[in-house]
Fold these 3 entries.
Entry 1:
Amino acid sequence: MVRKLFLVTALWLVAATPALALSGEPYFKADQLDMIHLLPPPPAPGSAEQQRDLNAVLNVQKARTPQAAKRAEDDAKVDLFAFADVLGPKFAPDSLPTTVAFFRKVGRETGGVVTVMKDCWERPRPFVASNDVHPPGTMQMENLTLPGAKNTAPHDAESPCRALEPASIYSFSYPSGHSTFGAVTAILLANMVPEKRNQIFTRGWEYGRNRVVGGVHYPSDVEAGRIEATVMVSAMMQNPAFRSDFAAVKAELRRALGLTP
Amino acid sequence: MRKLSFAPLVFLCFAASPALALSDKPYITAADVDFATMLPPPPAETSPAGQRDLQFIIDRQKNMTPERMAAIHRDLDQSVYTVAGPVLGAKFTKENFPMAGAFFDKVVKDAGVGVGPIKQKYKKLRPFQYSKDVHTPDDIAKAAGGPTYPSGHSTTGALVPIILGMMVPEKREALYDRGWEYGINRITSGAAYPSDWEGGHITAELAVNQMLKNPDFRADFDAVKAEIRKGLGMN
């Protein structure tokens, strides 16, 4: 009886607390992975592979329906709750404060790596490379960079990065940050809710594909984002601080979704 | 004194049978990376992604040439000499670079912890087994052991440029182009889907990222790098 009462109190405390405190440590350290040396370089300008990549974007554009364009525009927002498509209406921010904070932290750390990779390869977006590529709505201008943004990648002789180019008004194409987000989120959510593993991965992979539909990325950008995402999650999983936060978020999420602990 | 007289002997053994100098422990084990939870499930054949996968093969096969078919057959072999030969040149042979071949065979074999069990987990049919519209030469079909996802050839086609690209950064981009072509040849043969290629590529990246943390791997890597750079006349 006493124990039961205690449990109820504990539950109440959890529910009333806005969010459990996440680890203050980073989820992975830079020396845990060397993305610049792991990830394939994007097709070189003027290469046959670059032409194939661009043709793929143009072919997808030709087949693009208004509904597909709308879906791509919706996915231009980086939104964890896009996964409500597959996790249902209970997957909503109000009941998931720790989950929100956790994915925000994951997004910040993985996003930092993506930016360095983009700045390493300096690949122009498809709509910059070709006047025939027309992103729908505001998708093109969403990729404008802030004035005065600095290149974050090493471009010295030791680095495999391409020679430093003058700053571009659009952020670079390779790899796709949205594709990385979709894949990172899918891998983590699928390991928290394995019952929906297939649907979660399909949704996360669609996030990437919608960037090609929108003409703001090449297929190879999307592919690289998925690879990068997998390597980064794998590295994070080896970190005890990450694993402990992951377990707390998994518990919160499963409770909110009404699933067995 | 004793140490001094011993050293040349060790060196002699090393030079005489270089391949034997590789670590006899695996560079990666199943306990190091949980490939099964990290890799995306392959798309179902009937899903939009699955249909795109199949259509890609059918389109490639429509444009088949005798030269392409010859390249596909050449690329059945998974040795580093076949994968990297077109980039590193005619001198890059087993005779001239014995340690490289043994090393990459071992890398491919050890990375198999991320391939075989995943194939068995999903047991997905090969494209030519699923669709009559895919035409795969009999010898290739017969040699395609096991389920299709992820692609072992594509894993090899990614492992080689990732690792060789670190040894010979001068040729890094060309090695990746070649690795990509190697994977595409496998897809064009009808023995693998593009999503199998993606799965293989992810497996390779995860495996190498892990192997780089293994001191045995790093020691062998350095020895093979020295062999390759010396043999190619690079310093």
Entry 2:
Amino acid sequence: MKKNEVPQDNGEFKELCYAVDDKGNYITTKSTGWEPKSIALSNAIEEINERVANVKARVLNNETSPIEYYMELHKMDINILTSYVGLWKWRVKRHFKPSVFKKLSTDILQKYADVFEISIDQLKNIEHGN
Amino acid sequence: MEINFTHHQTAHCENGVVSNLMKHNGFDISEPMVFGIGSGLLFCYIPFLKINHGPAITYRIMPGFIFKRFAKRVNIKIKREKFKNTQHAKTRLDENLEKNNPVGLQVGVYNLTYFPDDYRFHFNAHNLVVYGKKNELYLISDPVMETVTTLTEKELEKVRFAKGAFAPNGHIYFPTEFPKELNIEAAIIKGIKHTCKDMLAPIPIVGVKGIRLVAKLIRKWPKKKGNKIANHYLGQIVRMQEEIGTGGGGFRYIYAAFLQESSKLLNNPKLEELAKEMTIIGDLWRDFALEASRIYKNRSAKENAYNNVASQLESIADKEEVFFKKLKKSI
């Protein structure tokens, strides 16, 4: 990549790139982004938003518990959530069931609320959570 | 207290921390030198593992290995510590700062408040340097950022104790002993040999063979997974390749810069020629990313388009195979 070919896509982040100057020597220069990369990133963000919207509908439909909603909202998957909350994976999965979620003790609810940095109230009612 | 530490922005965090810590201790080591001597370059497809619901592909070796190999090859000693207790982790960090010792830290990205929101994923192998503490604020030199920044005690604790894969557990590290003179020449040769071995490894998921395997998978994705998922996967490959930290072209440009610098140090003109070749290969990786992005931009690509990018990858694999065989012979 030549110095004058370093892409500038007006991103907020100025990152360092390696490029070649007129004499063929490597120099460092800054790039504000590149379209193929920005599209990939915005597609990935869109994908996450879709997952969040999807799980939100399922919570409102009583198919899953708010824990799964907050998990997606925080870009987590089940393994990441499991390690943050410090419980076995099968227990976390079980807590996705609305019937099980309703009976959870305050202690357990508080654990999840701490991970997501919300109150138990917000945890129980996802409408508060946005 | 504030340690007199000079922040230099680099492309990649791990190289950057090592290079900045070396410079602080009076050794002028560039980022590409750290990357090359530490044999950072790689290609690897990790089967059965999903990252952000997509394939796990890496263009570099495991986090932490660059520094480990670099230290071994230039013969410096590093002290590393991990913690279970957050209070203990904080005390040890503060003690080091009191002793005027800037410290490298492994952290998670998700809660790094100074990162743009869109870049905050659960990635736990980011590196930065803490070089002081003022009014309860830690002074941070994050190598991928243009300038220095700060984090509160609570914010730093959170990123030091991020959870999930590669959880940092408060990991701190700093060089403790240096030889009188660094034997850079021998270290460069070791670094290059190791990278050639990795890239030409007879393992189907690693190096040149790994690139061919991914090309084969790309051909299958649209039929097996449907266009939507195939596009998501392609986007993921491009992100891994061009994400902040790679310096562009999946680390190929940084590696070319390393070869160019080495050519002068070793007085070996062949390496200068190979640096030029690596630059061209880097450009081919960029072309591949551009073509791939055209597919996921339109979202309605024909199967032919996937085959085309797969062929691009295969031709890159052929060129890299020839390249690394030549590189191996040139030193």
Entry 3:
Amino acid sequence: MNHYAAWKNILIVFFLFITSLYALPNIYGSDLAIQITGTGDYIVEEKDLKGINNVLVENGIDFKSLEHINSNILIRFGDSQSQLSSKAVLKDTLNRNYVVALNLAPSIPKWLSGLGGNAMSLGLDLRGGVHFLLEVDMEAVISTSIDRYYNELRTLLRKDKLYKKIRKEDNLLAVSFKTEKQKNEAKKLIKKDLPDLIIVDGSESELEVSLEMSSNAQKVAKSSALNQNITTLRNRVNELGVAEPIIQQQGSERIVVQLPGVQDTARAKEILGAVATVEFRLVDEQNDVQTAIQSGKIPSGSKLYKFKDGRPLLLKTTVIATGENIVDASSSVDKDNQPNVSIVLDNSGGRTMLETTKEFLGYRMAVVFIENQVETIMEDNVAVKKRTKTQDIINAATIQGTFSNRFQITGIDSAREARNLALLLRAGSLSAPIEIIEERTIGPSLGADNIQKGLISVLVGFALVLVFMAWRYRVFGLVANVALTLNLITIVSILSMLQATLTLPGIAGIVLTVGMAVDANVLIFERIKEELRSTKNTQKAISAGYEKALLTIADANITTLIASLVLFSFGTGAIKGFAVTLSIGIITSMFTAIIFSRAVINLIYGGKDIEELSI
Amino acid sequence: MSLKSLNIPVINFVGNRKYALIFSAILLVVSIASIGFQGLKFGIDFTGGTLIELGYEKTADLEDIRSKLISANYKGTNVQYFGSDTEVLIQLEPQAATSAQLSSSIIRMLGDGLDVRRVEFVGPKVGEELTNDGGLAMLYALIGILIYVAFRFEYRFALGSIAALVHDVIITIGIFSLLQIEFDLTVLAAILAVIGYSLNDTIVVFDRIRENFLSTRHIEPSPIVNDALNQTLSRTLMTSLTTLIVLLALFYLGGEVIHSFAGALIIGVVIGTYSSIYVASSMILALGISKEDMLPSEKEKKEIDARP
């Protein structure tokens, strides 16, 4: 009695081997490293290694290894000094096709990583980093689309002089006509050429009709705005140089951005949320700005702008070039210590710039900095979105010679601002304003603390439970302890295999599992004790104890599993981590506490004639 | 065979259940009153707002930080030491113009060279959503469990276990309200875990009650329930003890971030252990559980026999 078939024992040993193997990578530490990846379509290749090697050697930087894995280049360092200095050097030498980012690389031996062995991936609360939840201002998206349709509608109906007037009212276009016949013709045209515009139910009268975007067109506009913003954010994150960033859509109007290991979170925030661009316009030299302000009449063809310090200036409404035309931008500081941004325009921008500077030599040209911001404020306890658009002239300088696609902007306040502006211009502007609606930043020091404290509490809790079990159930307690240890190893191993993210609440889940995993053994052992009171047959007591407790254990664990599945689907990051480890722990404990412990008990007591059990 | 003859200490749980009932009623009334009148001290996860944890090299001067915040016109600020006197936690309720940029300007204002350990910003809308989702999660967990228990046992057991769970959740939240401990997202997670744990305990007892009903010829439910409670008692206490041991380790060693999480679990485990002994079983007795209910096949047979 109480024997497992050989195949069952072999299976258990095999399981032990596999879990230990895949838990193993976690005992190796990690190296300070630099990770080089390609931006956008560019893929880092094996042949890039040579150039990078040369750069490092030329600058006398010590490094442990340099390798090309999965279209990444990974350089490992012995100390943080050489890691940081080589980041600076590489960032200067490599062109913009490469992203140079600081990272930690696990130092797992080759044979192990060859088998697919991986260390657990640590969450932001353990390794430090930033989590942002960004919301795209979809009202603004629709409003901009309506603006565009307004222009298209006018062009469409102008040909045959069909309309009397088109007004934009909120997100509607109200069109009035002179005759009903014209209205009907216009309706036909709209249906044919602008099918995205539909007539608002019940808005049609004899000579008027209101149009809105069809729900499908709205959906398309929203999703394309979201996708464009994700692309822009990705560009910006690449510019910041972050290893393993996560940028993904959440729901229909939100974007999650996670940047592990970012130190300067303030800058990351500025860069991600900024909807900034520039415009180049000619200064209106014919009209006097003071007269315009006093009379309140702005000359047609001109618009009133202000410098940051409030000085007014009249600028022409025609735009020479915008941020859209910029293909490259970089910042530097000139010999007078003035920060500037060097701009490279695309072909069409360069052509217009050349024509303008030729024609208006000696005139002034202004650079207007435009920033759209959206924030949610509380008004009488209701959250409302507040949109602000700032348009500041950052400089207005006399055109002293003709130029086309390469020139510089000066008049920027600080080197930091110049750097940010250059970055934003390079990465492209966001198609719609976004707002950070949630931020969770964990500094590197707290991350390290969390790992340490989490580890200590797991170990101490674990040790206490071991002592307690051994004291209460003696030999059986020791068996339960071995099962519990195996359970811990199995959890680590499964987390590593799944590459599920381990967070601090996740560690709490493991701690809780340690406490609860012994429950199955407690149930079994108490049942065996009970059986021993009514029978002298120890073998029978063992097998009856296991059998009778089994259903109870299953029932109890399934209900806990239901609760943790709900936790998982509720799923904000922190809670999800807890639910994952708790669920894994419950499932693995069923194996270790029932099947594995039984195998060990069988080995110790099985088939022998035993008077008394040590329980 | 009676339990006494087997040398098992027999405690008259069922007989004492009216005292337990009074005790539970008092706890529930106090909890509900506290939640109703005093409310919960919600963390920024639910209210929205900004939280900044800073590390100073030397002992931080809280008064200085407070006066700086006041002179910069921030309202609803709370500044306190966090863990040690070189670490400071600053909390701000949502300001007139709340944005993620707020924390950056405060950190800049307080000076350079600070170790920014943690920044959390939750926009008002997100806070509202988390509150709703949290409530829903609790509801779904309860419904899911109700269905499973009703399916595995019987509806009276399901109602009994839900009564115990609601009891545990209300009292745990009540203690958070009474002591004005901050209630954040991790505490909510802990309460959901308590639901799972407490149920685990209850199920073990119920399983035994069902087994006893089936294996004995007695039909009086009270002694059967009482026997089951006594038989499972040492398991109930052992498991609660091991769980409490690890939770205490987490509470004292896991750091400030995990403190209220571990606290909520400790409260929940204690209440959950108590409720699975007294509340759940009292409830099924009150609902009139009987031997026939355990034997659905016999019940059906009787119905068939009763036909003319």
